[in-house]
Records
---
Amino acid sequence: MKVTVDGSLCTGHGRCYSLAPDVFEPDDEGYSMQRDVPIPVPPGQEELTSRAVHACPEGAITATES
Ligand code: F3S
């Protein structure tokens, strides 16, 4: 599983890194640090990551299986 944060949609709500801090990280301004690049999801983090995907109010996070 990989996730990608669309940098044009992320407005810094922070739910992603609050829910799945082992996957997402904030930058200095509260946006997701990794934007527009696929982020590998570590084993065991899939459920929290899925919750983060659905929790983003901007719909900025896309999950792909691979
Ligand atoms: Fe950005 Fe959504 Fe996370 S707006 S900081 S990707 S919860």
Note: DSSP finds two helices and three strands in the chain.
---
Amino acid sequence: AEKWVYMVTAQTSPNIAVINYWGKRDEVRILPVNDSISVTLDPDHLCTVTTVAVSPAFDSDRMWLNGKEISLSGIRYQNCLREIQGRAGEVKDKERGIKIEKKDWEKLHLHIASYNNFPTAAGLASSAAGFACLVFSLAKLMNVDEDASHLSAIARQGSGSACRSLFGGFVKWRMGSKEDGSDSVAVQLADEKHWNDLVIIIAVVSSRQKETSSTSGMRKSVETSSLLQHRAKEVVPKRILQMEEAIKNRDFASFTQLSCADSNQYHAVCLDTSPPIFYMNDNSHMIISLVEKWNLSEGAPQVAYTFDAGPNAVLIARNRKVAVQLLQGLLYYFPPKSDTDMKSYVVGDMSILK
Ligand code: PMV
């Protein structure tokens, strides 16, 4: 057999929603009931690195996550692989004498190794960065001629929020209106340099695995919550426009008002679901109270918060000075080694504190 291995490595980062996605109108294609907006974290601090390799010596598709083999048989992996494979081009590496023709991809097998530089169990959304990285690296490997937005529609089929990790900076996922999902794509609103005063701190309140997966949670909310219907139709469309303005103008007061209100409404939808879903815990609630009080006492917002499908707080400080004060506050109320199990990660232009 031929002895070559051809490989590509790529890196992506998790993204944090500031206008949340919650609810699918199509569960197979993963099409949402509303637009969402997120900020992609700084890859120097939190990222996923994925290497994809192809060789005539491989006799099956295999994948390792943080060194442990995982199954590729799930429908979400299969959909992403199939979509990329369907667009695969020709690869020529003259120096190494490698030539892969379009028709060869059907016979060749892949080995995929993916690493998170942050604890997977920490409850930080890792599937978004994971699927974005998988799709991006496979597209490079197979010489797929599509732009990042087109690739985002493929990553979306792995995990909805993954489509937003194809871009850095501020990103919008347009829900789209087509049945086939081809217009349900991510677009970049502003790059990572646009508003780089912001510092994101993730307060890891609990590293336990969440009890309700986003998939089953969303399904139940769509089926039972009337607040979700109201939110998707009446509330989010306006908020999206306002958030785009706030980001464009670097208007931190509006940004904070919108992000906090949206996080709270999303968790209200969870509570409005039958049976109710509780993602936040007492520590999450305490952090919200502290931030709200602080913002009020300063006369202008200093810190925005948002919580995804778990109890960990994502705190966005208006600048570095505020971020330092915020960390001091967190360490005071949740001293390390206490039974609150709080670890803090600082993301932005500072290093991770643990
Ligand atoms: O893409 P999923 O299935 O992991 O869903 C993510 C949903 C939230 O994180 C709660 C909100 C969002 O927009 O990221």
Note: The domain at 199-347 is CATH 3.30.70.890 (Alpha-Beta Plaits).
